[in-house]
Amino acid sequence: MALVVQKFGGSSVADATSIKRVARRVVETKRAGNDVVVVVSAMGDTTDELLDLAGQVADAPPARELDILLTAGERISMSLLAMAINELGVPARSYTGQQAGLRTDARYGKASIVGIVPERIARSVKEGDVAIVAGFQGVNEANDVTTLGRGGSDTTAVALAAALRADVCEIYSDVDGLFTADPRIVPTARRVRRITYEETLELAAHGAKILHLRAVELARRYGVPLHVRSSFSTKEGTWVTDTPAGDPEEEAMEDPIISGVAHDRSQGKITVVGVPDVPGIAARLFQVVAAAEANIDMIVQNVSTQRTGRTDISFTLPEADGPATLRAIEAAADVLKYAEARYDDQIGKLSLVGAGMRSHPGVSARLFGALSAAGINIEMISTSEIRISVVTRIEDLDAAVRAVHGAFDLDSAESEAVVYGGTGR
Ligand code: ASP
Ligand code: MG
Description:
CATH topology of the largest domain: VC0802-like
Number of strands: 20
CATH architecture of the largest domain: 2-Layer Sandwich
Strand content: 15-25%
Distance between the termini: 29 Å
Mean pLDDT: 93
Bound molecules: aspartic acid, magnesium ion
Shape: globular
Radius of gyration: 23 Å
Helix content: 25-40%
Low-confidence stretches: 251-255
């Protein structure tokens, strides 16, 4: 007998019919002899609708009220699912994040979990219930309700799985698992059977909308095996563990060097032209950027010419932080003594990820070769041990993803990816 945590995304519980379908699935798992804890997201687009409503009554809704409002979405789906499961003759009880013992810090809208005391859930399961927990929410020290940030139900599920020492955390959405690229851009993208936590983290951090980043971090820290799969089919999905892919029998057909290509359209680039090439200038520039609370990603500094003693520094950051960061740099023009500062939001970022890169030379050459053959200019490059990212013009990004996907033999013979509900959540 195993303890299974199952998390169902919004598309899996979008309406009454879907909730009944999920209930049958949960009951099957329970009747197969497992203990089951379920974490649910809000139904369909509920969270967006609630946000929209808040915007209609207030220009700047207080963060505390907004969080209480948003947690209502998950409370609706949890109680409906409990009813549907009871209807099938299996006892089920639903619990809010607070009841489930999920403690967070006080940062409304993006709270971090500081601890879980899952006694109530453990007891419920011991008594034979399916325990259903509202995702994406907890409670702070003052006993006020908080939310974990958009997509946070994944994190609730993994945190509970870790605290309860579950055997597996199954993450259900409307796609069959993780793919080698976004199937909307590369129809021949292939389902990944197994992938490591660190590869998944790199993919998620560089634009792949697969799992909540913090959920993967937690899963890695506590060694929780994740099984990412569809609630609309019974196919095996993708296993995320710390064991690398490349089982010679099972995956002889797959290239084990690369596990996927992620893309990101949500970044912008700031270039500061003609900064004095003297010690301390980069420090001062990035102090200004940090004070503007921008999360920067790639940084490139040109070689300065001896003649001018000046250089250019470019860096990428989320588009949402772009304008404010540019203003902060402009406000510090006296100290930074540059010639010009520019902001460009028409960039795209492609990232190639694979643990096999560590031991296989020639990956960059192949990547750059594929882009050059497709006539795509590279504006910036950055790497980690298992990732190479490049910045291109935004209009070249899709072609770049396809070219690179093909160059690393990731294409499958036919289209494999099915998005059942249409949201990927
Ligand atoms: N309902 C929340 C959202 O839409 C949390 C989640 O779905 O994970 O972001
Ligand atoms: Mg959602």
